[in-house]
Specification:
The chain is of the alpha+beta class. It folds into three domains: 170 residues, no CATH class; 108 residues; 70 residues, Arc Repressor Mutant, subunit A. It contains 21 helices and ten strands. The strands form four sheets. Strands 5-4-7-8 form a four-stranded mixed sheet, covered by helices on one side. It has a two-stranded antiparallel ribbon with strand order 1-6. Strands 2-3 form a two-stranded antiparallel ribbon. It is extended, with a radius of gyration of 31 Å.
């Protein structure tokens, strides 16, 4: 077969180094961005961050028509600066916005520090630390390790003793009574009542640690924890007191003692590591209008080192080529940072415009918002919006939230409108908080109540939202008394 040359027309997208850099910077968090800039300053002599450096103006556009692809949209976004003023530390208005549920602000220096997650250690590590400090044989210690590894995040034993027995083989042939003896020792670690196999067991362990001479109602509380929890939840304290022939006053004392116990001791020790976040933008109200300002770290001030730039003209050929390359990289980085900052600000401003109801009235006023809606409004690609909303945080009077928090799907209402899934979750949470502890609302009843409020939602959808908020089912929410 003879070789031949053929011409073929086609289109493909080529990512220039500058576009690659713009995309990569866009998806970095503020902490990662700071590390990236520090690395660039250390490696590029043409780049500097002088204390009194004037902001470098954005290079003019090359005049090309913007394409609505992911990469061109990122690069072109710098040309469409948002109108919101730069406000690194806005003065909060005097209006009352409510407490909110986001991260709190703190710090003696006036800066706002935000913490996402619990500042605690892993439950298993906490228990293993205590196990290693407890005098016991190596055999019992091995059994203790197996027990601790079988404990879930809520502190309950997630495997049966038979399953733990099998996991120890063939190294250790242990009887169930031997494993249970070690289990009783682990259950008395901190948090007290951990590694229990039932609610009854964890309550009994906590009660057994109390002084019977100085704990009023202890004997009756132990009796209730051992065999009357279900009856107490269904009948209530007063009716159960009549059934057991116990004075109501004594029953109330015993029930109060049970209520003081921790039904989920493992929840005290969270496996989630602390995550410190710095807001990328601030939402504040000025003269009755919600505005957005970028945090100082989101728009870093970088400049070109004029001394090294002046050396290019009189340097040797090799040195001049190196300096020109570093100069080009410095200019690319500066433009990419401007692009990133403006894109973050535009997206934050668009979020604030759509979610003023949340800012003023809380989660139940959150409106449906999807990435496509913001992308079309700003003339950017959906994937660009996705990158901007990941690990970027907006500080509001209601707390600090990731940009993604403000996006949610919509559900139809009876009057033909729509409600966001976030607002519906907030409504479900409010209904559960207001329920009778002795008669928790089932998912079906929650769906009926929402329908009465004009929102049609299926029972399984209610269950999905409830589980997403880590709220137990109605059976598990039955409280004592």
């Amino acid at each position: 077969m003879k070789p031949a040359l053929q011409l073929k027309l086609g289109q493909h997208l080529t990512l220039t180094p500058q576009l690659r850099q713009a995309i990569r910077l866009l998806q970095l968090s503020s902490i990662e961005l700071d590390a990236e800039i520090t690395t660039a300053l250390e490696s590029n002599p043409l780049l500097e961050r002088p204390e009194d450096a004037e902001p470098i103006p954005e290079p003019p556009s090359d005049g090309d028509e913007p394409m609505r692809t992911e990469t061109e949209a990122v690069a072109d976004s710098a040309a469409n600066n948002a109108e919101e003023e730069y406000a690194p530390e806005p003065d909060w208005p005097e209006e009352d916005y409510g407490s909110g549920s986001g991260s709190k602000s703190s710090g003696d220096d006036g800066e706002r520090e935000n913490v996402v997650g619990a500042i605690t250690e892993d439950l298993q590590d906490h228990l293993l630390w205590q196990l290693n400090l407890t005098p016991m044989s190596n055999r019992d210690r091995s059994i203790g390790v197996a027990l601790i590894e079988a404990i879930g995040e809520d502190g309950y034993l997630s495997e049966t003793l038979e399953e733990i027995q099998q996991s120890l083989k063939p190294e250790i042939e242990a009887g169930l009574d031997e494993i249970e003896a070690v289990l009783h020792r682990v259950q008395r670690f901190d948090p007290l009542g951990v590694a229990a196999r039932s609610l009854s067991e964890t309550l009994l362990v906590q009660l057994q640690a109390m002084d019977p001479e100085h704990t009023e109602g202890l004997a009756l509380a132990q009796k209730l924890a051992e065999s009357q929890l279900e009856a107490l939840a269904k009948s209530g304290a007063e009716k159960l007191a009549q059934q057991l022939g116990v004075p109501v006053e004594e029953m109330n004392v015993a029930v109060a003692l049970l209520r003081s116990l921790d039904p989920r001791p493992g929840a005290q020790i969270s496996s989630q590591a602390p995550e410190y976040v710095t807001p990328d933008a601030y939402a504040y109200r000025h003269n009755g209008v919600w505005r957005v300002g970028l945090a100082p770290g989101c728009r870093p001030q970088l400049g070109i080192n004029r001394h090294y730039e002046s050396l290019i003209a009189r340097a040797s050929k090799g040195d001049a080529a190196y300096l020109r390359g570093q100069l080009q990289e410095a200019r690319w980085l500066i433009k990419s940072l401007l692009t990133r900052a403006d894109t973050v600000q535009r997206v934050a401003a668009c979020i604030v415009k759509h979610q003023t109801g949340f800012l003023e009235h809380g989660p139940e006023a959150m409106r449906p918002l999807v990435l496509r809606e913001v992308a079309e409004e700003l003339g950017l690609h959906e994937s660009t919006i996705s990158r901007v909303t990941t690990r970027k945080y907006l500080h509001t009077p209601r707390g600090t939230f990731e940009f993604k928090h403000f996006f949610s799907s919509s559900l139809a209402t009876v009057d033909g409108g729509s409600a966001s899934s976030t607002a519906i979750q907030a409504m479900i949470k409010r209904l559960i908080e207001q329920e009778d502890p002795r008669r928790p609302l089932s998912d079906a009843k929650l769906a009926d109540d929402l329908k009465g409020a004009g929102i049609t939602v299926a029972r399984r959808t209610v269950a999905k939202y409830r589980e997403a908020m880590n709220i137990p089912s109605s059976n598990e929410r039955q409280r004592l008394g």
